[in-house]
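Anyone up for a design puzzle?
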């Protein structure tokens, strides 16, 4: 269940390029972008005193990305940000001068953006972000989805005016097909995973993700001792671990990376000590995390900055959705999608295992930060798994005030 980081690079400084991308200056750039968005507001940070007591830890705080930028997922921070940065850079090259976010609405910049097409593969949330970013600047988007992506998620992307392309096979097959078609047509791939020779744009996506961590750290009275964060290809986990390493160095919180057991490419990579592609088997309910090959840039960061790696089962993901929807005394009701509560599910599993508690130094003084990375991005599936609609959960009286570690 739990694998300590035994990589030779563990606790070494970040690669200079990663430190630049995920450090203070890079994160501040992502913050500047959000400041220019009229629809931006910090997402809630909730304290779960009831669950913390049940797990015998000092405090649990949940950063709820289900309210992020109208897309219901942390991925709203990544793809759209990368699209906008790429448009600004292209405009700067053509105009021979720096171009700022404040100019995005100008006819001159929108004319340049109109000639650009951004493509990506997605399980749902990243594609929505790329499509939204393209619409923000007046560019075009082509989004590739595999057969496992529900029609509800496809429709949620298409409403931003994106061209939708269905691909047979898995997420990794859709990544390959998007790259092939984009190369033929001269489109720009905005991927949340990286491969040899393709790192900068996924790095920008990860840089966008640092905004949720910065908001969380700005709202807590004390720095967390532990962070449990989920991984698909590893991008958000690396953004969190990398930014914490850049901020706190050897005094950083312990970061535990949590994956579905059915799609644990980061866990397998940590076992092997090198990037590993795992076999595609039975699909996981944690659809946004169903990835079988790690992002190279993400692994480079995690090999240095993650404390441990672990997996959770299908029932763990569904159980935490239900636990958050029907909270214990003192806890607020939270809508978490199938992948949203996976980091918290990892904490529940680890806290119940004496060996894991000892290895991670989890105790009654631990302050744990987790991220609800998505709300009910597929409301019908959410209602099936939880037995309540998202609206019914959100209508419940708050069990506690949004809080901070105390």
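Challenge accepted. My sequence:
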């Amino acid at each position: 269940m739990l694998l300590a980081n035994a990589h030779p690079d563990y606790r070494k400084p970040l690669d200079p390029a990663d430190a630049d991308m995920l450090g203070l200056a890079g994160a501040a750039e992502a913050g500047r972008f959000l400041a220019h968005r009229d629809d931006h507001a910090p997402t809630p940070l909730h304290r779960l005193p009831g669950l913390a007591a049940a797990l015998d830890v000092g405090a649990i705080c949940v950063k709820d990305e289900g309210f992020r930028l109208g897309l219901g997922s942390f991925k709203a921070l990544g793809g759209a940000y990368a699209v906008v940065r790429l448009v600004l850079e292209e405009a700067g090259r053509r105009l021979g001068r720096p171009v700022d976010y404040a100019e995005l609405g100008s006819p001159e910049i929108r004319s340049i953006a109109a000639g650009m097409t951004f493509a990506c593969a997605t399980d749902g949330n990243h594609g929505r972000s790329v499509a939204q970013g393209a619409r923000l600047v007046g560019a075009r988007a082509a989004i590739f989805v595999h057969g496992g992506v529900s029609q509800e998620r496809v429709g949620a992307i298409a409403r931003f005016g994106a061209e939708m392309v269905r691909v047979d096979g898995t997420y990794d097959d859709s990544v390959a097909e998007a790259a092939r078609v984009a190369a033929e047509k001269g489109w720009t791939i905005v991927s949340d995973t990286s491969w040899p020779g393709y790192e900068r744009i996924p790095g920008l996506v990860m840089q966008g993700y640092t905004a949720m961590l910065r908001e969380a750290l700005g709202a807590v009275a004390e720095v967390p001792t532990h962070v449990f964060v989920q991984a698909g290809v590893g991008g958000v986990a690396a953004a969190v671990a990398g930014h914490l390493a850049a901020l706190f160095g050897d005094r950083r919180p312990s970061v535990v990376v949590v994956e579905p057991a059915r799609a644990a490419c980061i866990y397998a990579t940590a076992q092997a000590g090198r990037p590993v592609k795992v076999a595609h088997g039975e699909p996981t309910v944690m659809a946004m995390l169903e990835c079988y090959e790690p992002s190279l840039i993400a692994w480079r960061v995690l090999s240095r900055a993650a404390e441990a790696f672990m997996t959770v089962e299908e029932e763990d993901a569904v159980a935490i959705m239900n636990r958050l929807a029907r909270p214990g005394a003192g806890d607020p009701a939270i809508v978490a999608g199938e992948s949203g509560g996976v980091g918290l599910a990892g904490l529940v599993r680890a806290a119940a295992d004496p060996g894991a508690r000892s290895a991670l130094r989890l105790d009654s003084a631990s302050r744990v930060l987790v991220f609800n990375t998505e709300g009910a991005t597929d409301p019908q599936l959410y209602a099936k798994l939880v037995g309540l609609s998202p609206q019914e959960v959100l209508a419940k009286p708050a069990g506690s005030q949004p809080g901070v570690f105390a």
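A detail worth pointing out: Residues 24 and 247 are 7 Å apart (CA to CA).
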